[in-house]
Amino acid sequence: MTTTIGGETSMDFLPPGPHLPRSTTGREPQYLLVTLLGDYWSGRREKIPSSALVDLLAEFGVTESSARQAMRRLTNRRMLEQAKSGRTTFYGIPEHMSESTVARRRRVLRFGLEFTDWDEHWTVVSFSIPEKDRDVRRLLRNGLRDLKFGLLNDAIWVSPHHRVEQATALLEELDVTDASVMRAQILERPGREQSFIDVFDLRELEREYRDFIARHEPMVEKVIAGRVAPSEALVLRTEVMSEWLQFRQVDPTLPSQLLPEDWPRRRAREVAYHIYDELGTTAEGRFRQIIGNVDRSLASLASHHTSRDA
């Protein structure tokens, strides 16, 4: 494999625009449980009785059988740790899941901040894969999409971020040898009808950001005024933040100078974190109450995080 790192070249392409699919999670019990423990039980090694976790998920309309199935599946995936005392089963966060929690939380909470220090170079990946290896080509394309690369043409993908190491690792993992990875400056020809950033299909992303704002901004005033009940606060805080973070899966986080002046991500982020931050104490109180109804000694150990932790 020919890999060029740090090279500065100029390229001129007219890109088509691929579709960037949204990731959805809804109220999937496994996702909810991991999210709730990450929000209110982060860093704790103490285990929580399974009945308390059942009650916690019931706040979101999850049945007892679905809740217990989620715990078993998360344990099988090593995302939860199980223990027993008599007839009571307990679950907690495994040590290996806690080791990088702080760094991971900061990365998550920083999503949506403006990308203003761009050096005007792109990570460019080009490759040639024969038709007989089309399964490898499919896996490579999916991997590049996961890394937020946009498709410039049939086999050239680009990202404004420094993704040379990640792209190189992906090519090596799939044993793609006829490929190149470099940092390059890409020039647009004046007078084009189509902009280079159309490669990322921002129209659908913009529509989804504006839809998020329209649905959740009306709640901000009510939240700030403290007119949200504890049970509602726990559900609303979790669901709004879960929906907001789905944008991480599809937003290529382009440099601010490439985006329209009225790009709605900043406003969507403000809406999300107004709700998340303002409801933190109330939602934590509801979490404590649910856990405390089963084991009062554990209730005081709960905590919550805000966007300031980023």
Description:
The chain is an alpha+beta fold. The chain contains 13 helices and eight strands. It has a domain at 10-15 and 117-195: Alpha-Beta Plaits. It has helices at 29-40, 50-58, 64-76, 95-98, 101-110, 134-146, 164-173, 202-216, 218-224, 230-246, 265-278, 280-292, 296-299, and strands at residues 10-11, 48-49, 81-85, 88-92, 122-127, 150-153, 156-159, 179-186. The strands form two sheets. Strands 1-8-5-7-6 form a five-stranded mixed beta sheet. A hairpin with a 2-residue loop joins strand 6 and strand 7. The chain starts with 9 loop residues before the first strand and ends in an 11-residue tail after the last helix. 28% of the residues are buried. Residues 1-26 have low confidence and may be disordered.
List the helices and strands and how they pair.
Blueprint: E1 10-11, H1 29-40, E2 48-49, H2 50-58, H3 64-76, E3 81-85, E4 88-92, H4 95-98, H5 101-110, E5 122-127, H6 134-146, E6 150-153, E7 156-159, H7 164-173, E8 179-186, H8 202-216, H9 218-224, H10 230-246, H11 265-278, H12 280-292, H13 296-299
Parallel strand pairs: 1-8
Antiparallel strand pairs: 2-4, 3-4, 5-7, 5-8, 6-7
Helix pairs in contact: 2-3, 2-12, 8-11, 9-11, 10-11, 10-12
